[in-house]
């Protein structure tokens, strides 16, 4: 019997196999990144480490930068991140919302720190990494809009700020560079960073 037009059937077994292949490739890439750096994490090397053909790697991820994007997404956006986002969106009080925003920032930067540290030097010589960072920052900027909208609707935005400037402030203050400088360079604990960031966001964005 012909399948109804417009419907796509996906075999659960085939999907599991595809997920396993994706995870195996990502694990191989992560291992190579740790042992040989970004330069040594070539598609051919990843394929060999994962036990697949190079065309399979390209079919799954498209490029070396696609593999790296997957590694960063896996590090940043795990189950803990998803739980925090749900809690944040369910929080309607501006002070509490900003404290949740600070917690999300801490969680993301803690989770990604190992991979980002491995890539820090490579970003100088690999333009595609700079483009990936730029894309990530654009997405992070877009993600600030609901938080600023909530503050405005609650009538708590500082009078010297408009929606755009408030969004600029929130985006800049939650950037990863502050986390790196305070936690990695100055030895702050992630908990101290989160508390400091939350207090600073409340002072910078909310009216008394």
What labels would you give this structure?
disordered N terminus, 2 domains, Tetracycline Repressor, domain 2, 208 residues, Arc Repressor Mutant, subunit A, single chain, mainly alpha
Task: Give the arrangement of secondary structure elements.
Blueprint: H1 12-40, H2 43-50, H3 54-61, H4 64-76, H5 79-89, H6 94-119, H7 122-125, H8 127-142, H9 145-153, H10 163-173, H11 176-185, H12 190-205
Helix pairs in contact: 1-2, 1-4, 2-3, 4-6, 5-6, 6-12, 9-10, 10-12
- The general outline is elongated
Question: What is the typical, i.e. mean, pLDDT?
Answer: 87
The first-level CATH class of the largest domain is given as Mainly Alpha
Unreliably modeled segments: 1-7
What helical percentage do the residues reach? Answer: over 70%
Outline the structure in words.
The protein is mainly α and 208 residues long. The chain has two domains: 12-74, Homeodomain-like (Arc Repressor Mutant, subunit A, Orthogonal Bundle); 77-205, Tetracycline Repressor, domain 2 (Orthogonal Bundle), CATH 1.10.357. Helices cover 77% and strands 0% of the residues. The protein has helices at residues 12-40, 43-50, 54-61, 64-76, 79-89, 94-119, 122-125, 127-142, 145-153, 163-173, 176-185, 190-205. It is elongated.
